[in-house]
Write a structure and sequence with these properties.
The protein is an alpha+beta fold and 345 residues long. Helices cover 35% and strands 15% of the residues. Strand 1 (54-58) and strand 2 form a beta hairpin.
Length: 345
């Protein structure tokens, strides 16, 4: 998509403007808000940007997303101007590891961009952290995540079947933006565990795959719940890699059981590493690792993660069911950044 300064489209009415965006190939398959110049300028003003700043540069594609490009895509995604600093911070965070960003735009395995919001900004913007966490119904979640994908499609030519070579795709490519339910969590907030103050508003960004549900309905001890997560994690890791980084979303009812049984975040991380391994020999036989098998492969245990801090534990979702979720975050190093600042951990 060209910038608003490079191309102006005049139409008779709003519906015609929406249809023109379809004809120009600017949409993700759903209708977009026409990126009127005054709306783009409003986005930039809120973030204190001129429109010329480079936010994300994929030099392997000779493509750059400027703040003006990002603002236009944010308008089209349906973002309010107050959401724009989140998008800017997320794009700047992705700049830290461009090769994996290129993967998120093109890989056959169909990863997307996960964003987890922490701090006061959750309430200020109305970002959902409870019922239907990964689903529809919340403008901030839907439009912020959608803006990232529109930036990739319009800025990096990440179109299915073209430069996006995703074999199956995923609904997470429409939007993958959530918040943590800090208030009901048995543990300190995710961003605090990563070195930030509780009062900081931050976004944690990862190149990630679709969440995998863990429906442990009848395990009524913390150990039973974690064994169910381990079993699901072993199968999820089979499809990709040992080791990796992970985001584990603990649902409210599972969290209460874990709290009652005295499981700390560190306890959970250690348990998952210890109980989610497979032998290299098994992985070769299952086709997850390249063979041939070597002597000793059945004794060589491959762990889901090398370090407990590679497993991020957060709390989210609604009550009414005993569910948690696992998110595989590929080889991209998960990063957390303060909104509107350069602080990065």
């Amino acid at each position: 998509m060209t910038s608003s300064a490079e191309r102006h489209v005049e139409t008779a009415d709003t519906i015609e403007a929406i249809e023109e965006c379809f004809r120009l190939g600017w949409t993700d398959g759903l209708p977009v808000v026409p990126p009127a110049d005054y709306k783009v300028r409003e986005m930039l003003q809120v973030a204190g940007l001129t429109g010329e700043e480079e936010l994300l540069n994929l030099d392997m594609r000779s493509r750059v997303i400027t703040s003006e490009n990002a603002a236009a895509n944010a308008v089209m995604a349906g973002c309010q101007a107050a959401y724009f600093p989140v998008l800017v911070t997320a794009l700047r965070t992705l700049e830290e590891e461009r090769n994996f960003v290129n993967m998120a735009a093109s890989s056959t395995s169909s990863p997307s961009i996960l964003m987890v919001l922490n701090g006061p900004i959750r309430e200020a913007l109305g970002i959902n952290s409870r019922d239907g966490l990964f689903g529809p119904g919340f403008r901030a979640n839907a439009s912020i995540g959608r803006a990232v994908r529109l930036c990739f499609m319009n800025g990096f030519d990440a179109w299915p079947g073209q430069l996006d070579r995703g074999t199956l795709g995923t609904p997470a490519k429409y939007t993958f933006c959530i918040a943590e339910n800090e208030e009901d969590s048995p543990w300190e907030p995710l961003h605090v565990s990563r070195g930030f103050d509780a009062a900081d508003s931050v976004v944690t960004v990862a190149v990630a795959y679709n969440p995998v549900s863990v429906p442990n309905s009848y395990g009524h001890t913390g150990r039973a719940i974690l064994l169910g997560i381990c079993d699901t994690l072993r199968s999820t890791a089979l499809a990709h890699r040992y080791p990796a980084q992970w985001v584990i979303v603990i649902g409210p009812e599972h969290a209460l059981t874990l709290q009652d049984d005295g499981w700390s975040r560190a306890d959970i991380q250690d348990f998952l590493i210890e109980n989610s391994g497979r032998s290299r020999g098994e992985l070769v036989r299952l086709g997850s690792k390249q063979g041939p098998e070597r002597p000793g492969d059945d004794e060589l245990i491959m762990r889901c993660a090398n370090d407990p801090n590679d497993i991020l534990i957060m709390h989210g979702g609604g009550t009414g069911g005993r569910y948690s979720a696992i998110i595989d975050t590929t080889g991209y190093r998960i990063r957390t950044r303060k909104i509107g600042a350069e602080q990065l951990l």
